[in-house]
C-alpha cells in the first residue's frame, strides 16, 4: 500500500496531528483505547523512511497494529479483547520518545526502560525484544521471573467474563453473577454444571436454572403419562416430581431419558411427556427378549405388575436378575421382597 493511501487510516488514531510529522522516525510509542484511557501498551519502532516507501518506523508499526487488531490476531490478547468489546475506532497512538539512533539494541534498551518504569497493562511480555527474534532459554526464564506474582487489573478480566443469571425453577431471577466462576464460588455449585444448564445441555444445577441472558423460559407442570408395554395408558401426572413421589423413585435419570425418548422404558413402563394421549405404540418386540414375568405380592398373592422379561423387572425395581429368575423357577421363595412367576 502507498504512504498516502494508508495515511488516512492513521489520522483518526492519533492524539495530536503533529505526530504525523514524525511517523518516519524511530523510537518508543504507547497505544491506548479511549474506553480505557488509563491502561496502555508500550512498543518500539525501528528502521527509517527511505524517501519512497516507509519500510518500518512509527508509521509501519502503527499500521501493523491496526491490521492485526482488525483481523483479531494481535499479539496482546488484552488489547485485542478491548478492541473486540469497544471497537477499533477508539485506538489511539502516542509517541513518547524519538530515538536518534537506528541501532535496534539501543531502541530495545529504551523500550525496556519504559516497560520497567511505566508497567503497561496490555503487554503480554515484560521483556523488550525484536518480534522476529525467538526467545532464548535464558530470556524465557527472565520473563517467567518477571511475570511471577503479576496481577492484572480487574478491568482486563471483566472484558473476558460472561455474566450468568440464576433463576428459580419458576423462572424468578435470583441473582446476576459476573461469571460462572463467581456463581460457583458463592453458591457452592459445580461450575461445569452451571455452564451446561446455560448452554442447554442439562435442565438445572443445584436446584436452579441458569442462563447467559437476563431471562429464561420455563414450562411449568409439564404433564407426564405412564403406559404399559402394550401401549395402554395407566396414569397421568402433572410433573416429574409427582411421578417420583407417587412411585417412590429416588433416581430420575432413567425416567427423564424415557420421557425424552433416549430409552424405551423406565421402571417397567413406557413414558411420554408434554401431551395427552390415551394409547401409544406397543413396545417393539425386538426390544423384548425372554419370557414375560409376573410380580406378585407375597401377602395377598395379587399380581402387582407384568414385565416383558426378568431384565426389565430387575432394572425397574433395582433387583438382581438372578434373584428374580431363581424365585420364578422355584429355587427361592421370594426375590427382592416379591414372588415371581413366569407367564404361561
Describe the fold and architecture:
This protein is α+β, with helices and mostly antiparallel strands and 344 residues long. It folds into four domains: 3-131 and 139-155, GIY-YIG endonuclease (3-Layer(aba) Sandwich); 161-211, Arc Repressor Mutant, subunit A (Orthogonal Bundle); 224-273, no CATH class; 288-342, Winged helix-like DNA-binding domain superfamily/Winged helix DNA-binding domain (Arc Repressor Mutant, subunit A, Orthogonal Bundle), CATH 1.10.10. 33% of the residues lie in helices and 18% in strands. The protein contains twelve helices and twelve strands. A three-stranded antiparallel beta sheet has the order 2-1-3. Helix 7 crosses helix 8 (191-198). The longest helix has 15 residues, at 104-118. Residues 1-6 have low confidence and may be disordered.
Amino acid at each position: 500500500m502507498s504512504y498516502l493511501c494508508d495515511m488516512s487510516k492513521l489520522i483518526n488514531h492519533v492524539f495530536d496531528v503533529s505526530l504525523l510529522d514524525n511517523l518516519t522516525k524511530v523510537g518508543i510509542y504507547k497505544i491506548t483505547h479511549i474506553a480505557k484511557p488509563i491502561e496502555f501498551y508500550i512498543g518500539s519502532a525501528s528502521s527509517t523512511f527511505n524517501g519512497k516507501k516507509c519500510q518500518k518506523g512509527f508509521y509501519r508499526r502503527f499500521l501493523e497494529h491496526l491490521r492485526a487488531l482488525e483481523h483479531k490476531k494481535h499479539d496482546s490478547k488484552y488489547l485485542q479483547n478491548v478492541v473486540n468489546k469497544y471497537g477499533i475506532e477508539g485506538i489511539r497512538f502516542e509517541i513518547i520518545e524519538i530515538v536518534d539512533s537506528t541501532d535496534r539494541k539501543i531502541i530495545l534498551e529504551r523500550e525496556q526502560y519504559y516497560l520497567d518504569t511505566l508497567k503497561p497493562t496490555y503487554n503480554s511480555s515484560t521483556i523488550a525484544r525484536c518480534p522476529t527474534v525467538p526467545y532464548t532459554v535464558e530470556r524465557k526464564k527472565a520473563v517467567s521471573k518477571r511475570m511471577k506474582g503479576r496481577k492484572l487489573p480487574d478491568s482486563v478480566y471483566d472484558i473476558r467474563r460472561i455474566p450468568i443469571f440464576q433463576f428459580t425453577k419458576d423462572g424468578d431471577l435470583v441473582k446476576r453473577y459476573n461469571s460462572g466462576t463467581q456463581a460457583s464460588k458463592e453458591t457452592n455449585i459445580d461450575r461445569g454444571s452451571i455452564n451446561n444448564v446455560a448452554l442447554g445441555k442439562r435442565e438445572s444445577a443445584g436446584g436452579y436454572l441458569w442462563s447467559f441472558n437476563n431471562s429464561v423460559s420455563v414450562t411449568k407442570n409439564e404433564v407426564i403419562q405412564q403406559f404399559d408395554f402394550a401401549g395402554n395408558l395407566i396414569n397421568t401426572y402433572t410433573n416429574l416430581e409427582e411421578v417420583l413421589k407417587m412411585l417412590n423413585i429416588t433416581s430420575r435419570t432413567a425416567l427423564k431419558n424415557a420421557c425424552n425418548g433416549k430409552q424405551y422404558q423406565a421402571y417397567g413402563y413406557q413414558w411420554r411427556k408434554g401431551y395427552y394421549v390415551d394409547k401409544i405404540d406397543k413396545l417393539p418386540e425386538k426390544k423384548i427378549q425372554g419370557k414375560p414375568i409376573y410380580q406378585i405380592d407375597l401377602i395377598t398373592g395379587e399380581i402387582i405388575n407384568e414385565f416383558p422379561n426378568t431384565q426389565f423387572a430387575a432394572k425397574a425395581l433395582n433387583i438382581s436378575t438372578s434373584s428374580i429368575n431363581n424365585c420364578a423357577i422355584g429355587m427361592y421363595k421370594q426375590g427382592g421382597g416379591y414372588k415371581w412367576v413366569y407367564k404361561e
